[in-house]
Amino acid sequence: MSHISRIELDIKDLQSLKEACKRLGFEFRKNQQSYLWYGRWVGDSPLPEGITEDQLGKCDHAIKVPGAQYEVGVVRKGQSFILLYDEWVKGGLKTKLGVNAGLLKQAYTIETLRKEARQKNYRFHETKMKKQIRVTLTL
Amino acid sequence: MKQVIIDIMADGEIKIETRGFIGKACLDETDFLKNLLGYEKARQLTTAFYTKNKKVIKKHLPLCG
User: Fold this and answer.
1) Which residue of B1, B14, B46 is in closest CB contact with A9?
2) Residue A35 phi, psi dihedral angles, 5° rounding
């Protein structure tokens, strides 16, 4: 072992996000310009960085989560994408997406690594562990 | 055998560990992964990082004087 890094995820690859949706049974809706939410910001949580109140409900693509009333908005910010969604319990997204949309981010990371491994001819191995999913790349 | 182990938690947190690399090679050879996924917010170097030609380079801190 030689070093350990902690990474802050940045969603950059739409194809991997689509694969992540497929993996979780979500439906990626390309070019859907709005997503379902409460419809009015009530100020109970801070706005995502770089997003104004007017931008809520608008997106470049959307994700439909089966069993949830609300949807996830995928918004382009420069070279990256951010996920906008309403966490209100009755919207149904919080339980499906996990804390901070962690389950979707987890699936995205795995699919991004799988794609990279395929392109670079690395051996890819995925293991489900108690608290995490472990991906081992053999270079 | 050079391996990169990526642990992805259910809250989206990512931890990358390298194995089988000697010295600074681990940093160079895993840069692409960090750029691919996002950015590095913390790094911890381990013993193998300070290894050169299978010998650990000992570093001493002057504690006094």
Assistant:
1) B14
2) -130, 150
Distance of alpha carbon A8 from the chain centroid: 13
Q: Do A1 and B19 touch (CB under 8 A)?
A: yes
User: In chain A, how many domains are there?
Assistant: 1
In a domain, A25, yes or no: yes
Q: What is the DSSP letter of A60?
A: S
Q: Is A139 helix (H, G, I), strand (E, B) or coil?
A: coil
The sign of the CA dihedral A71, A75, A80, A83 is: negative
Per CB-CB distance under 8 Å, the chain A contacts of B16 are 4-7
* Residue A75, CA distances (Å) to A107, A135, B59 in order: 18, 28, 48
Tens-place pLDDT, residues B33-49: 888 999 888 887 766 55
Domain ranges of chain B: 3-54
Q: Is the pTM of this model over 0.80?
A: yes
The confidence score (pLDDT) of residue A68 equals 96
